[in-house]
Amino acid sequence: MTDQAAFSLRGRNPDVLTCIANLSNDEVFTPPEFANRMLDTLAEAWAANHKGANLWADKTVKFLDPCTKSGVFLREITSRLTKGLEKQIPDLEKRVDHILTNQVFGIGITQITSMLARRSVYCSKHATGKHSIAKTFTGDDGNIWFKRIKHTWDGERCKFCGAGKSVFDRAKGLETHAYTFIHTDNIKTRLAKIFGGNMQFDVIIGNPPYQLASDGGTRDGPIYQHFIEQAKMLQPRFLTMVIPSRWMASGLGLSEFRQTMLGDTRIRELVDYPAANDVFPGVEVKAGVCYFLWDATHDGDCKVTTIRGDEVEGPIQRNLGEYDVFVRDARAVAILQ
User: Fold this and answer.
1) What is the rounded average pLDDT of the residues 140-168?
2) pLDDT greater at residue 24 or residue 138
3) Does residue 1 form part of some domain?
4) Which of 7, 103, 255, 308 is deepest in the core (most CB within 10 A)?
5) How many domains does the chain have?
């Protein structure tokens, strides 16, 4: 077996990440094919902003998945960088080690998903394990970090995520679902402690947890908006996430978030799937899902694409802030006007 074949991150039959079951409807694994669609959108925007430059041939770009589960985004990014940097770093082992130690970073949402992500990216649940393809890490986490933390209770709710104390004040050893990325007043300081130094990420990408279980109410509370807000605080060049589409017109406690999103002229692209099954087979997410690409240098209308099965509408240039909700069907906009 050649070194290249041994390192192959894709092309296995079957890809294990297409076979694993979702944790729940709240924490859904991203299919590799869909992750690559998001990466293609990102790469096109990068090229447009950098005179046609290939994102995957830049050895200085740093990527962060702040809510990694299966590790699919980091794995696919690593695979693309491994090909793109071949001329700059000809030695395969050195190239891979450079990518894994300097360019791809993740924060696990649970203990088990952090190990799964390391297995996907490093080929070992420990970055320093004997089967790890990263050779210079000194700690088992590598750059995919996880530590169980507790909620910060303000009365009966967490002041950061709104989780109910009666549900999530759990016994030692159980998952608290107090996600590290959103449980802090200063995300830059938090990441400096986790990864060391003053980390500046060029690209933040992920599929955040969607909601938290209710503590007696009739509806679970959304949580994905907190990940987006925190990510923007890090001032990346690009931010792209897949989230439920309910924010566009409804959603418990999402009015302020909706107005912020609709008024943010840095949202360059929005791809909407009214039927979540088109993205996550077998998973019900009411009102569907979408992914967006936020570009720090963009200031203007958003390119909107709607996909229903094999039917593709768009892309169409839209002013997201034209109304106080987002009218998903572009044909209806003409009627409203």
Assistant:
1) 92
2) 138
3) no
4) 103
5) 1
For residue 7, being part of any structural domain is answered with no
What's 98's domain CATH number? 3.40.50.150
Q: Provide the edge-to-edge strand list for the sheet that holds 289-295.
A: 144-145, 104-108, 63-68, 203-206, 238-244, 289-295, 267-273, 302-308, 311-318
Instruction: With respect to residue 19, please indicate whether it lies within any of the assigned structural domains.
Output: no
What distance lies between CA 108 and its chain's CA centroid?
A: 11
State the residue range of the domain holding 101.
25-336
Of 18-27, 85-94, 156-165, 250-259, the range with the highest mean pLDDT is: 85-94
What token pair was written down for 330? 């572009």
CA dist list (Å): 123 to 6, 81, 108, 239 = 10, 17, 16, 27
Distances (CA, A) of 205 to 36, 107, 188: 12, 11, 17
Alpha helices, H only, the chain: 3-7, 32-49, 72-84, 92-102, 111-122, 165-168, 187-195, 224-233, 255-262, 330-336
Structural domain contains residue 13: no
- Tell me the pLDDT tens digit for each residue of 190-206: 999 999 888 899 999 99
